[in-house]
Amino acid sequence: MSEDVGRIRTREDYRAARKHSIEDPEGFWAAQAERFHWHEHWNEVLEWDFTKPDVKWFVGGKLNITENCLDRHLEQRGNKLALIWEPNDPKERFVRLTYRELFERVCRYANVLKHHGVKKGDRVCVYMPMVPELVIAVLACARIGAIHSVVFCGFSAQSLADRINDAEATTVLCSDGMFRGAKEMPVKSVVDEALAKCPTVKKVIVTERVGWSVQMQEGRDVWLHEEWEKVDGNCSAEVMDSEDPLFILYTSGSTGKPKGVVHTCGGYMVYTEYSFRNVFQYDESDVFWCTADVGWITGHSYIAYGPLLAGATQVMFEGVPTFPDAGRFWQVVDKHGVNIFYTAPTAIRSLMAHGLDHVLPYSLHSLKVLGTVGEPINEEAWHWYKTHIGKGRCPIVDTWWQTETGGILISSLAVVTDERPSHAAWPLPGVQPILVTADGQEISDNEVEGLLCMKFPWPSILRTTWGDHERCRQTYFSHYKGLYFTGDGAKRDADGRYRIIGRVDDVINVSGHRFGTAEIESAINEAKGVVESAVVGFPHDIKGQGIYAYVITEGPVADAEDMRGRIIEAVVAGIGRIAKPDKIQFVSGLPKTRSGKIMRRILRKVAENELNSLGDTSTLLDPKVVDEIKEGRL
Ligand code: 7RM
Fold this sequence. Notes:
Layout: H1 11-23, H2 25-33, E1 44-49, E2 54-59, E3 62-63, H3 65-77, E4 81-86, E5 95-98, H4 99-115, E6 123-127, H5 132-144, E7 147-150, H6 157-167, E8 171-175, E9 177-180, E10 183-186, H7 188-195, E11 203-207, E12 221-223, H8 224-228, E13 240-241, E14 245-251, E15 259-264, H9 265-279, E16 287-290, H10 297-309, E17 313-317, H11 328-336, E18 340-343, H12 345-354, E19 369-373, H13 379-389, E20 396-399, E21 433-436, E22 442-443, E23 448-454, E24 464-465, H14 469-477, E25 484-492, E26 498-503, E27 507-510, E28 513-516, H15 517-524, E29 530-540, E30 544-553, H16 560-574, E31 583-586, H17 600-607, H18 624-631
Parallel strand pairs: 4-17, 6-7, 6-8, 7-14, 8-11, 11-12, 16-17, 16-18, 18-19, 19-20, 30-31
Antiparallel strand pairs: 1-2, 3-13, 4-5, 9-10, 14-15, 15-24, 21-22, 21-23, 23-25, 25-26, 27-28, 29-30
Bound molecules: 5'-O-(acetylsulfamoyl)adenosine.
């Protein structure tokens, strides 16, 4: 099959593809899927029922995603670079791996896993910094049919333990420690702390990164570099069913503990490759760089899988945007000749604040396409990105999607469809968004606002939440009959472009990372002296949203700084350093309805400093508490 099947290169192609995908979705997706290597062809393209939910793509098909990421390219692209790994410290040497070298490492790592008893269907937790072994580990799991669950290294031992236990993982893959800007941080000792509470874990495989001496538990912990020598380099791929789980990725929602979103092999493969090629208009010689961490969905779909499925060359970066200085991204772009650059609005805003002195020394002439993801991009940041990074000549793709959607659903396609600042714009062909009112009526006009839903499945839609299918149904498929509900509000302009406004549920998006208010509150409530808390988001110049916590303590707070310190410690221990509250206000009570429900709307308004639009407070149990909260606002 030609590489160009289904490739959308013009406005006309876009219109035709979109029409085709609506009139004949199965034919549309079958043509995309034909481009891959299947051990057995599917019998049916799609079976679906959103009420259960039950969604199956490429039913009966057999494949292994790593054969499509690696083996399939060896003949034509064996010597092509797959990965250019740029370390945290620019003085350290970078690493380049060709498709053949990456293939060999994945096979060897897969044999290490097998040697330690990992089998198809076992859950393997990957807790690693952004080193090549992270991608190799993920692909090694997929090679043997083990289900990977990557946990971002900024999560605490407690969060790690919760995720390991929920998935009943048998194996943990980690490193000794990690570099992050000027800091060195532990990794293995965090795993050790977590594993004290994880009875299912039998093996830990440790990659050496910082050279620290770490404790190795006899019989449980082994060094990757020692095991590496004991196995050979051939590892045939496990033949998987289209609907066998590929991975679990935990994500926060408005209630309870994070959910394990499950993606399966066939549909996820087809969709991540399709969206990668078309959104970024990737061409064979392009160098792609996505700055996300593999610990989030963006790193899964547009580092570990999408680019490799497309046979692309990509940069993988270990460090942070501001080390050794705020020119680091642009230095890496010049150094490796990056053509397509994909990052988060929060990073753009933070670099914008550091000033143009960090941008102007670099040429950036290799750049062709810029992308953003994770949160709405404000117009000011959009224009700065367009002008100073893209030099006015690069299209920006504002890509809207979610952990649950597996790949980009709404985005302009670089060059092909036009762009408008702060608008994700149009659905990809094959994606059918609609806006509904709060009571579920479809809004069919343009120039409207509503709740964003999807009325037809796409191949990389989540299939379930690990161990709790009912929770999946309730969270995504029960609000509006027959629809997938995204949790986002959106506008649609006169030309049909979507503009995502943000979450309409109790989810806060901090620097593009999702946290449930309930999740943060329960961490805060672990601090000694805390009676109750309520958390809301508020607009933050750099992070998009910041975390504002209202806390009731046992008796008066004598030393506010000390108490704040203890609360922050509790959040760092319960969730991780990424969820630290920005503001903590001590209050004597919370605004509650007579039935005891916290009126978050009021707390949100106070945090946003919109004190004159609190709405009706007369139905509160104790209206006076609102005055106290307003006065004490931080
Ligand atoms: C990829 C990712 C998902 C939530 C989603 C939105 C928000 C993501 C955009 C965006 C406006 C965008 N997955 N979001 N992309 N909002 N414009 N281009 O971020 O599961 O971690 O978050 O992020 O609220 O529901 S995620």
